[in-house]
Each structure stands twice: as structure tokens, then as C-alpha cells.
Write a structure and sequence with these properties.
heterodimer; A: alpha/beta; six-stranded mixed beta sheet; B: about 280 residues; mainly alpha; MetI-like fold
Chain lengths: ~525, ~280
């Protein structure tokens, strides 16, 4: 039996105040194997990933345990000794390639830096190798790709360039830290396939960090489930998927599976249409973001707008609320024409359409208390007395499932899911007819997102509110939307009842989107790439 | 957590700064009680040496130097504080207005400020003060207004970053007015980065007041103020008498103390983009 290439034993990481971020984590990794680290944000996945390079983020300290690479305990090395290991023996692929590349250097310079620095290749060899890799990873115009700067290529291309950079010095181990999270589903799929091939062809041992169980199921041999810095379960991928032992793992697996089930809906024909956006066209400068898009929302129904980044789905939301001016088309809301500009809308019109944002952190003023945030719309729109405002605010807190003593808290003292609940309560405070949700759960962890979706549905049942949900996540659509519209490059390519959209015959683009959603089966990726190749 | 800790434990330099500044503030507040002699009381010989009677000696017309320094603290620090408060009031209001109210007003205000900043501030102040005379009131207004252009620049650059955040968008979507957005949404978030700037602007204004007084256009006799005291006693240096050094030391110590405190505050919250520290 060969020795593991990476061995972490009883690792303990604390921040400067002494909070334990990672507690007693041990793992070992053989050459050519992939270990998936999965968990919510704050579970310590990235911290472990970085610790594998014996690196701790600012404010953190490795306080216990040791990290061994190929038999060498790298903490015991000097700073220079560690520097020789990093990049050469163990490399790192960050989540946001866009933020990790230096915008002032060409991609070629950055890809070649490491092999030349570690004397693995000469600059000329490194360049030739890089061009080969660009070709292998299907980057456009491989011979000249390296001459571009990071801002001149797309996110998916950049992520591939980063993977090339990571293996440029022939490392034994690569740490992939959420390499596909920032990408669209179709791009994610391409990158995933390429990463998988790289790992296989170069016989690399990899730590693959992600929050998406379905993604890690495609790529990892073993999965480690983490929660709050502790290992919940470490098993083979197969047994995690098929027979999870711990409750938390079971929840994770079950939650991912339910999203494959459609929401049972009965569409009533006599429902009153509350929003009718007809033939909307909008521009950013000369660029046409929306081309003749028409959608309607009826009372008490949920309409989803699906598309990848750049498809114009958020622009559509902004047109409806009046933040972006439409160039042509009509907005009719509750039988009246809506002014395209925010300034000319009546207070009542503003009240009846509310918006919930993707990032609850930035949608709440960090200097206001929860009571101020929820109370303001009540005071503003209904002009109630202070006592009535307070009473109603507490009611709303209860309605979104938060305890009353949050009233005096600042929003900064809440978790992401709680913040999103506050945003929902604020929207409800205005007693709206329509709530537009712009990616309401994509900044949240899986189980938290699930709770938020349930809350939205429950509120719809109670209050008969309509939702216009903007999302790239087809799982959400299937679960909550009555009707769905698919946007591609600013054009409506398909629309109709969700169950029809998701049943054959598909529009070709819908089919691609659908196929690209990772499924919770071990061989899904291989099957799909085999099918596509034919 | 880390930030709270360093709030409780300022570095040594900041502690020294705080102690020194507190001493001068104590002088300023309690000058009439603790000063051994009156502000304009001529009780000794010209430029008497330090003695048990006059701890720092006397000035050019025989007034007690220590008493003058104490009363001078009141004038110099008081005027500088008033100027800085005024400049922040105007600068922040206009800066937030420019950031919130839209492109046209922003352009008008910003270009006007560019124009005003292109005129050297000392020349400008000298011009106004010689036109309107140097009363305490005109002095504070002049320095306050001139300094507010710099505060405007910072306040605007901090505010434009806040104005684009989603919670401000939420307020706009709610139909909130300009005043609410400025005072309730933007201002509370703009203040923390402005606090350190307050210290720096105070320093510049303080030096500016002292400088104007030294030129004879600032605080007028018989009021004691440090800049004026350097001027009055300047000739003593030629005779080897240390009289002008005392107010000069007070000016230097105050400036350095404030800067040491500001350095500490700046290290706590990163300096906002576009902050202007230049005079």
C-alpha cells in the first residue's frame, strides 16, 4: 500500500479571539483521488483547503495538528521551505477567478509565472505547454489566448485558465475551492468536465470544496461533510449518496432530491391578471438588454424568469419596478398603466410592487435596527402611530418566523437567512400585491435557502400574493413556480406552465439548461458528456 | 471582535496623544480658574526669565506666559473646533446632496468646488479677511467655508459608494424623499470614515488659524492665541530669550497629538477612497 500524498491530522484552527473555526479535522488523500469537502458557509471548508497548504487566512491561526505532504510536515518548514511546496507540490484554484487574477498582467504571464519560478520549465517551454493546455481545455484561439488580459475573457474561460495555472508546475495536489460556483449552469458543466479530465489525465490528488452535493458527487471518490468546523461524516461518495448515516447528511441529500419534484399546481383560468408587461424593450446605452419581452402575472401565482447571467432577467425586474427605463412597450398593473419612471409613480403603485434582493446583507441598512427597517414602510405608507407600527412590526416578525426580541437588533448581527427573512418582512410591511424576488436564495446555503422558499410559499398561501421570481436555479423554479419564462440574450425563448416547460418537447435552449443542472447521481456527468459527444 | 479589542487598547502613541490633548483641552475649559494671572494682565517686566513667580516667564509687555498659553488654548482650539464643525456641516450636507440628488446637481456642485479649490486657500483667506475685517465671526465663517470644499470632496466620494447600495435603492423604491435618504440611509454609513478626517481637518484648521494670527489677520489682541503669541514675541529670539518657543511648542504638541490619535483611528477603519489629506 502506498503512503497518502496529503495527510492532515487533528487539525485545529482558531481566529485571534479564540473561536474555533476547524476542530480536530483529519484526512488523508492518495495520489489520483479526489476528496470532496462539503458544507454550509462557515463550515470551515475553505479554511481546511488553505490549511492543506499550511496557510491560514488573516486573523486565523493553525493551533493544533499537522499537515504532511508526501511525508514532510510542512508546518515545520521555514517560510522559504513552505514557499517551495506551494505551487510546486500543492496548488490552489480559487472560487472567483475574476478576483484572483492580476488585471495588469496577461494570462500567459500569469500562467507561466509558476513553472518558471519553480524552475520546472523554461519560459519558452512553459509558453508552449500553456498553448497546448489552452487547446486541450477548448479555450478560443489557443495560440493567442495568452496575450489577453483577464478582463478580456469570460468567467468560465478565466476559471479554466486558473485550473491551467494551478497545474502548471505539475503539482501533486490541487485544492479546488468552489471553482464552478460563480458560473452559470451550462458553463459550470463545461468547466466541471474539464476539471475532471485534468485530474484523471495528470493523476492529481485533489481537494474539491463546494456547497453543492450534486457537483461533488460527479467528481469525488470520497466526501467529507463538514458543519461548524467539525467533521460530520467522511465516507465514499456512493455511501454518502445512498446511505447517509448522520442526520445532517440525510437532510442535505434529501433536500437535494426533493428539488427534482415539480410543484403540483392547478392553474385557474379566471384569475385576474395583475401585471401585464407587453413587448418590453430596454437598452443600456446602445446595448439592447431586452428584446420585445412579454410576460403576465396573475393574482396569487408565482411566475419564474429563468436565464443565465447576461440574459436580461434582472433588467426585466428593474424595468418593472421603474429603476431602468424601457425604450418601448407597456406596463399595466392592476388595470392601470404604470409610468416607466419611478419618479412619476404614485406612492400606492410603489407600495404594491415590492422587491427582494439577492444579497440580503446589502439590502439592509447596517446602521438601522430590525424594528426601524420593518417599521418604516408601515409608517411611510399607512401613517400609523408609533404603537401601531410597533405592534404590526412584531406581527410581521412572527409571520416570517423570527423571535420578537430581534426588534432591537442591528441587521449586522443576523445570519444570511435571517436577513433575508427581514427583507421579506419589510416587503410584506407594505402589504404588496406583487413581490419581485431577484435570486432570493442564491446567496444562501442549501438548507437555509430551502426554508426561505418554504416561507415564501406559505406566505403566498396565506396572503394570496403574487411572486415574480428571477433565478438561474431550475431547482427553485420547479419547486415554486406556477409558470415559467425562459430568457436568452434578452429574448423570451419559451414561456408557459412550469410543468409544460419542463416536459418534452423542449425548446432546445431549455433542454440545454435542464440537462446542465447537476443531478444527484454518481455517474450523471459521465453519462451526459458521453451523450453530448455522440 | 478584534476591532473592539483595539478600541479598548489604543497603542502607546495614541495614549500619549490623548493625554497631551486632554491637558490642553483642560486648559481651554478651565483657563479662568487655573491660570495664575489674567489674560491681558501686565504684571512683570518685558520678557522676564522663567521663575517661581512666572513659570514660563513673561511676554513682550510683561504678561504671564503660562496664563497666556492657557487662555490661548481656549481661543485657538475653540476657533479651530468651530471652523471644523462648520466646514463639516456644510461639506457633508453638500457632499451628500451631490451624491443623492442626481447627476446635474452633482456636476454643478463638484465643478464649483473644483473652481474654488483651484484658488490657494491662504491667499483666498487673506483676501476675504482684509476685505471684511478680522472679527472672530468672519474668521470662523471664512475658514469654515473654505475648508468645507475639501470636506465636500471626501463626503461626496464616500457617499457615492453608499448611494449605489441596495438599501438606498429600497428607500428610493419606497418613494422616500431626498432628505430621508441623505440623513437616514446615507449619513449614518458615511460618518465612520469621516471621523478620522475630522481630526485631520481640525489639525489643518488649527494650523491655519495659528498661521493667520501669526500674520496678524487671525484672532486679534488683547485675546491670547498661540499664533499671535509667536508673532508678538518673535523678536525675543534674537536676544536668546525663549519666549516665542512656548506657544510654538504648544502648537506643535497639539498638532502631533491629534495626528497620533487620528493614525490610530485610521488603522481601525480603512481609509475611504478619495480621502484628501493634503492642505
Amino acid at each position: 500500500m502506498t503512503a497518502p500524498i496529503l495527510k492532515i491530522q487533528n487539525l485545529r484552527i482558531e481566529n485571534l479571539v479564540g473561536d474555533v473555526l476547524v476542530d480536530n479535522a483529519s484526512l488523508s488523500l492518495m495520489r489520483g483521488k479526489v476528496l470532496g469537502l462539503i458544507g454550509e458557509s462557515g463550515a470551515g471548508k475553505s479554511t481546511i483547503g488553505l490549511a492543506a497548504m499550511s496557510y491560514a487566512r488573516g486573523g486565523c491561526k493553525i493551533t493544533g495538528g499537522h499537515v504532511e505532504i508526501d511525508g514532510v510536515v510542512i508546518q515545520d518548514l521555514s517560510a522559504e521551505g513552505r514557499a517551495k511546496f506551494r505551487g510546486r507540490r500543492i496548488a490552489y484554484v480559487a472560487q472567483s477567478a475574476a478576483a484572483s487574477f492580476n488585471p495588469a498582467h496577461t494570462l500567459m504571464d500569469q500562467v507561466c509565472e509558476m513553472p518558471v519560478h519553480h524552475c520546472v520549465r523554461s519560459r519558452i517551454e512553459a509558453q508552449a505547454w500553456a498553448v497546448d493546455m489552452f487547446r486541450l481545455l477548448e479555450l478560443p484561439d489557443p495560440a493567442n489566448f495568452g496575450a489577453r488580459y483577464p478582463h478580456q475573457v469570460s468567467g468560465g474561460q478565466l476559471q479554466r485558465a486558473m485550473a491551467i495555472m494551478a497545474i502548471s508546475a505539475n503539482p501533486d495536489i490541487v485544492v479546488f475551492d468552489e471553482p464552478t460556483t460563480a458560473l452559470d449552469v451550462t458553463t459550470q458543466l463545461e468547466v466541471l468536465v474539464l476539471i475532471k479530465n485534468l485530474i484523471r489525465d495528470y493523476n492529481i490528488a485533489a481537494l474539491y470544496i463546494t456547497h453543492d452535493l450534486a457537483v461533488v458527487a460527479q467528481i469525488a471518490d470520497h466526501i467529507m461533510v463538514l458543519r461548524q468546523g467539525k467533521i460530520v461524516e467522511l465516507e465514499t461518495t456512493q455511501s454518502i449518496l445512498n446511505s447517509p448515516k448522520k442526520t445532517y447528511t440525510k437532510e442535505l441529500v434529501a433536500d437535494r432530491q426533493t428539488s427534482d419534484v415539480f410543484r403540483e399546481i392547478i392553474l385557474k383560468d379566471d384569475q385576474e391578471v395583475i401585471l401585464d408587461a407587453a413587448n418590453i424593450t430596454a437598452h443600456y446605452g446602445d446595448f439592447k438588454v431586452l428584446k420585445d419581452v412579454s410576460i403576465t402575472v396573475a393574482k396569487g401565482e408565482t411566475v419564474a424568469i429563468v436565464g443565465e447571467s447576461g440574459s436580461g432577467k434582472t433588467s426585466l425586474a428593474r424595468v418593472i419596478v421603474g429603476l431602468t427605463k424601457l425604450t418601448s412597450g407597456d406596463l399595466t398593473f392592476l388595470g392601470k398603466k404604470l409610468s416607466p419612471s419611478l419618479k412619476h409613480r404614485s406612492r400606492n403603485d410603489l407600495r404594491k410592487i415590492q422587491l427582494i434582493y439577492q444579497q440580503p446583507d446589502v439590502a439592509l441598512n447596517p446602521r438601522h435596527t430590525v424594528g426601524d427597517i420593518i417599521g418604516r414602510p408601515i409608517k411611510f405608507y399607512f401613517n400609523r402611530t408609533a404603537d401601531e407600527v410597533r405592534k404590526r412590526t412584531l406581527e410581521l416578525l412572527e409571520q416570517v418566523g423570527l423571535p420578537a426580541d430581534y426588534y432591537y437588533r442591528k441587521s449586522t448581527a443576523l445570519s444570511g437567512g435571517q436577513k433575508q427573512r427581514i427583507c421579506i418582512a419589510r416587503a410584506l410591511a407594505a402589504e404588496p400585491t406583487l413581490i419581485i424576488c431577484d435570486e432570493p436564495t442564491s446567496a444562501l446555503d442549501q438548507l437555509v435557502a430551502d426554508e426561505i422558499l418554504k416561507l415564501l410559499q406559505q406566505l403566498q398561501d396565506e396572503l394570496n400574493i403574487s411572486y415574480l421570481v428571477i433565478t438561474h436555479d431550475l431547482g427553485i423554479v420547479r419547486r415554486i413556480a406556477h409558470r415559467t419564462a425562459v430568457l436568452l440574450n434578452g429574448e423570451l425563448v419559451a414561456s408557459g406552465a412550469t410543468s409544460t416547460i419542463f416536459k418534452p418537447p423542449f425548446h432546445p435552449y431549455t433542454e440545454i439548461l435542464l440537462q446542465s443542472v447537476p443531478e444527484l447521481r454518481e455517474n450523471w456527468l459521465d453519462e451526459l458528456s458521453a451523450r453530448r459527444a455522440i | 471582535m478584534a476591532i473592539q479589542n483595539s478600541f479598548k487598547n489604543p497603542p502607546l502613541s495614541a495614549k500619549i496623544g490623548m493625554v497631551t490633548l486632554s491637558v490642553f483641552i483642560f486648559f481651554a475649559i478651565f483657563a479662568p480658574v487655573i491660570a495664575p494671572y489674567g489674560e491681558a494682565e501686565s504684571i512683570g517686566k518685558t520678557w522676564a526669565s522663567p521663575s517661581s513667580e512666572f513659570l514660563l516667564g513673561t511676554d513682550n509687555i510683561g504678561r504671564d506666559m503660562l496664563s497666556r498659553i492657557m487662555f490661548g488654548a481656549r481661543m485657538t482650539l475653540g476657533v479651530a473646533t468651530a471652523c471644523t464643525l462648520l466646514s463639516f456641516l456644510i461639506g457633508i450636507t453638500m457632499g451628500l446632496l451631490a451624491a443623492v440628488a442626481g447627476k446635474i446637481l452633482d456636476q454643478i456642485l463638484s465643478r464649483f468646488v473644483d473652481l474654488m479649490l483651484s484658488i490657494p486657500i491662504l491667499v483666498f483667506a487673506l483676501m476675504i479677511l482684509s476685505m471684511f475685517g478680522s472679527s472672530l465671526f468672519t474668521l470662523i465663517i471664512t475658514i469654515g467655508v473654505l475648508d468645507s470644499f475639501r470636506v465636500f470632496r471626501l463626503a461626496r466620494s464616500v457617499a457615492v459608494n453608499i448611494v449605489v447600495t441596495e438599501f438606498v435603492e429600497v428607500a428610493r423604491l419606497r418613494g422616500e424623499g431626498l432628505w430621508w435618504i441623505m440623513t437616514r440611509e446615507v449619513l449614518p454609513n458615511a460618518l465612520p470614515p469621516m471621523i478620522a478626517e475630522f481630526g485631520l481637518r481640525f489639525c489643518f484648521n488649527f494650523l491655519f488659524v495659528a498661521g493667520l494670527s501669526f500674520l496678524g489677520l487671525g484672532i486679534q489682541p488683547p485675546f491670547a492665541d498661540w499664533g499671535g503669541m509667536v508673532r508678538e514675541n518673535g523678536r525675543a529670539i534674537a536676544f536668546g530669550i525663549p519666549a516665542p518657543l512656548w506657544p510654538a511648542i504648544a502648537i506643535g504638541l497639539t498638532t502631533i497629538s491629534v495626528n497620533m490619535i487620528v493614525d490610530w483611528i485610521l488603522s481601525l477603519n480603512a481609509r475611504p477612497s478619495g480621502a484628501s489629506a493634503e492642505m
